Amino acid sequence: MKARLLLKFFVAVSVSLLAGAIGAIYTSTAIPTWYMTLPKPLLSPPGWVFMPVWTTLYVLMGLAAFLVWRKGIEQKDVRAALDAFGFQLVLNAAWSVFFFGLRSPLLGLIDIAALWLAVVATIIAFRRVSRPAAWLLAPYLAWVSFASYLNLSIWLMTRSAG
């Protein structure tokens, strides 16, 4: 039984980190070129902050998914919560593709608005299954909110500059 729980934990965290790895493929090539030329808002953190913050958030997300998954995939609420989690994870990875890969702050903004709503829906779904799991997503929602501010600011600044 413990081996099965450990495997679920490893899978849940790995899947979350995989979303980050997919995003990193698009991010890493655009940061030293395109992103460095963009105007940044006043509250924009230094570049080195993003990797440790996102890595921490992906681990917390994976832990939250594990806490829900261990309640039993055969339960309807668990399946619904994990479906919501998977959907927001796709939106999460897609943001890097839109913003960095396609170099489109507008598409990034549209995606991150949908992502924010999906994270809220995931928190609500997780809360029905595991309150600690829902709380583990609170820092993620806070960071996505901050990232939304950054994305919106960059879009407005580049829109008015061009």
Gross morphology: elongated
How many DSSP H or I helices?
6
- For the record, the CATH class is Mainly Alpha
Total strands: the figure is 0
Described by its quaternary structure, the protein is: single chain
Could you give a short account of the major beta sheet? none
Over the alpha carbons, how many angstroms does the gyration radius reach? 17 Å
Helix-strand topology string: HHHHHH
| Mean pLDDT reading | 95
CATH superfamily: TspO/MBR protein
Describe the secondary-structure layout.
Layout: H1 2-37, H2 50-69, H3 76-101, H4 105-129, H5 131-136, H6 138-161
Helix pairs in contact: 1-2, 1-3, 3-4, 4-6
Main features:
single chain; 162 residues; mainly alpha; Ferritin
Description:
The protein is mainly α and 162 residues long. The protein has one domain: TspO/MBR protein (Ferritin, Up-down Bundle), CATH 1.20.1260.100. Helices cover 85% and strands 0% of the residues. It has helices spanning 2-37, 50-69, 76-101, 105-129, 131-136, 138-161. The longest helix is centred in the N-terminal third of the chain and has 36 residues, at 2-37.
Explain briefly what this protein structure is.
With 162 residues, this protein is mostly helical. The protein is 85% helix and 0% strand. The protein is built from 6 helices and no strands.
